[in-house]
């Protein structure tokens, strides 16, 4: 066996060809990365997904798939969708807070304007 | 007569797509009705039916519908954005949150200026009242007021979402 097999081929216990689609993104020193992605998506699906992408975008795709897979392992029910829900809730709260604060600024500006006007006539 | 499992009256979407007999104990049937063919097709394309089956088997039954919903969402987003998937959505939301934090800091600063604590905005930088507000927003974020700090530094730092 080629001692320089990528992590994917090591995991799958197969020969790592020179044009292995996984090799650029799954170095042999990080076996957990492929194990996680394989557990959620499966090697076949990941291979198909990567084949459908231009070369220059595959590294980003692998990183995003790895992150989503890790989220799913950590939270089997919601995966990374849990993070999306949390952010959406926090954004809603921040928007409400911003609207409230901007309204308070408007009121304060009106009061300052009224005070300045009454000072003029004194 | 050879023993065999009774044929279900209507196959679930999963068994229809996989062209197999849908049994009463089919793990997919409660969550992928026969009308959900497209949804299952997307989930199958991204995750694979056997992986979905394993995932569903690992969660309590009462949480399986939520699991299917989140898997369907992830699959949908991944198919629309094959490179970034849900991470693209998370990055956009994080950017939106940072913009809102910036706007909130500006609004609070203006409110402080109008509250009469200090008559000169330039003195606000050292006021304890502003410091109390700034505790809510890291000072480095306020650098965005003059556009000098890129939001990009915050993107994809998903190891520690800033808002959790």
TrEMBL record, chain A:
Belongs to the LOB domain-containing protein family. Residues 4-105 form the LOB domain. The gene is LOC104790294. It holds the Pfam family LOB. Keywords: Coiled coil. Residues 84-111 form a coiled coil. It comes from Camelina sativa (False flax). InterPro entries: LOB (IPR004883). This is LOB domain-containing protein 24-like.
UniProtKB/TrEMBL annotation, chain B:
It comes from the Eukaryota. Residues 10-111 form the LOB domain. InterPro entries: LOB (IPR004883). PROSITE patterns: LOB (PS50891). It holds the Pfam family LOB. PANTHER family: LOB DOMAIN-CONTAINING PROTEIN 21, LOB DOMAIN-CONTAINING PROTEIN 4-RELATED. Belongs to the LOB domain-containing protein family. This is LOB domain-containing protein 21-like isoform X1. The lineage of its organism: Eukaryota, Viridiplantae, Streptophyta, Embryophyta, Tracheophyta.
